[in-house]
């Protein structure tokens, strides 16, 4: 269970008061355990009370394997097959993020995974949109949201999914509709090149794309995300560190050499949607202090802080900031830079990104007193 002290930095700052922009958060990875129980309508679950069920998700996700981590989604997807369920989950996601100080979020999900009980792609998107709008309206303008529609890389529905995303694309930051597309699912063995046609379609229609890459597979996957997936951001992307050579010199100085892909990602400022706690669960590192986040930050990569799946990682955006700060000694200035990176990379018009940056600046100024 999370306690209040976990939200505080070493200087006492409550990270929930800091304005945040969240680029990588899965709708189906953020359900409240009690909601799963309610929506299951008595169907068998791994645990029968909310606290025990939440612990089951966290324990099951701590496998060190992306593939095993993804198996926990079978439970949540089983209760997200109706319009009412999708609407409730979407509304509650906004409530939870608003309570954590998020001012803009891009929630990603795969409509093709919610069609077992008769929903269509369009019907599923309409239900989620309705729930997101309800949550934003109740928050009275504190938080805005956009949707990222995921193509599942192990399936063959990519073009149809992108076409559906285009039918529901956003016209305004206030409409809670689709702002981009994504490629998700088991990374190894399912390269972005397998869905080149779908992402070319998105590009022709000027819909931005982010692609999961560099989490469950290496540098070649990242290269394919850029070349075949037309990625403007990289979902996780942390294994770009595999393309960085660090050498200790005799005089004590350290030299760093970046490979071709790492150079491209850094120099073109392709944003890394890093989800530190989730990355530990899927085997990127054993301890936060060994996570490549700080290496990438110090080398000038455009890093952002994300949650991936709040349920499975027992986390929130505010907790991720504390965990990183405890590991690497980050100051409020560092945390503000991560938030600014996210605002600049959001799939929004420039004027909306500028507004987010101004809200971040004001919020961090208030935190400094």
UniProtKB/TrEMBL annotation:
Coiled coil: none
Name of the protein in its database record: adenosine deaminase
Entry's family note: Belongs to the metallo-dependent hydrolases superfamily. Adenosine and AMP deaminases family.
Superkingdom classification of source: Bacteria
Keywords in alphabetical order: Hydrolase, Metal-binding, Zinc
Domain Adenosine deaminase intervals: 19-361
InterPro entries the record matches: A_deaminase_dom, Ado/ade_deaminase, Metal_Hydrolase
GO molecular function, one term: hydrolase activity
EC number, as in UniProt: 3.5.4.4
Magnesium found in the keyword field: no
Cofactor(s) the protein needs: Zn(2+)
Enzyme class, first EC level, given as a word: hydrolase
């Amino acid at each position: 269970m999370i306690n209040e002290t976990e939200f505080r930095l070493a200087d006492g700052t409550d990270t929930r008061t800091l304005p945040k922009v969240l680029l990588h958060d899965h709708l189906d990875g953020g359900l409240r355990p009690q909601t799963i129980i309610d929506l299951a309508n008595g169907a068998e679950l791994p645990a029968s009370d909310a606290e025990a069920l939440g612990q089951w998700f966290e324990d099951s996700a701590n496998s060190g394997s992306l593939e095993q981590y993804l198996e926990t989604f079978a439970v949540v997807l089983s209760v997200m097959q109706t319009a009412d369920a999708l609407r409730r989950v979407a509304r509650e996601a906004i409530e939870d993020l608003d309570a954590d100080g998020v001012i803009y979020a891009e929630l990603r999900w795969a409509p093709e995974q919610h069609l077992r009980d008769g929903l269509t792609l369009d019907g599923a998107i309409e239900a989620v949109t309705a729930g997101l709008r309800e949550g934003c309206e109740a928050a009275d303008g504190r938080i805005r949201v956009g949707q990222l529609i995921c193509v599942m890389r192990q399936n063959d529905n990519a073009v149809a999914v992108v076409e559906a995303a285009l039918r529901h694309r956003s016209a305004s930051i206030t409409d809670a509709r689709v702002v981009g597309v994504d490629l998700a699912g088991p990374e190894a063995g399912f390269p972005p090149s397998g869905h080149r046609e779908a992402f070319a379609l998105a590009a022709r229609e000027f819909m931005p794309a982010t692609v999961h890459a560099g989490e469950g597979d290496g540098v070649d996957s990242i290269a394919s995300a850029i070349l075949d997936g037309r990625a403007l951001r990289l979902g996780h992307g942390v294994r770009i560190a595999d393309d960085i050579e660090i050498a200790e010199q005799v005089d004590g100085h350290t030299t760093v050499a970046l490979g071709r892909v790492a150079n491209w990602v850094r120099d073109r400022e392709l944003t890394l949607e890093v989800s530190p706690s989730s990355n530990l669960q899927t085997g990127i590192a054993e301890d936060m202090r060994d996570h490549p986040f700080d290496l990438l930050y110090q080398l000038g990569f455009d890093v952002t802080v994300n949650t991936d799946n709040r349920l499975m990682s027992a986390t929130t955006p505010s907790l991720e900031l504390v965990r990183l700060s405890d590991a690497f000694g980050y100051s409020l200035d560092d945390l503000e830079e991560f938030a600014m990176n996210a605002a600049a990379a959001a799939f929004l018009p420039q004027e909306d990104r500028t507004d987010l940056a101004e809200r971040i600046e004001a919020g961090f100024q208030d935190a400094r007193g």
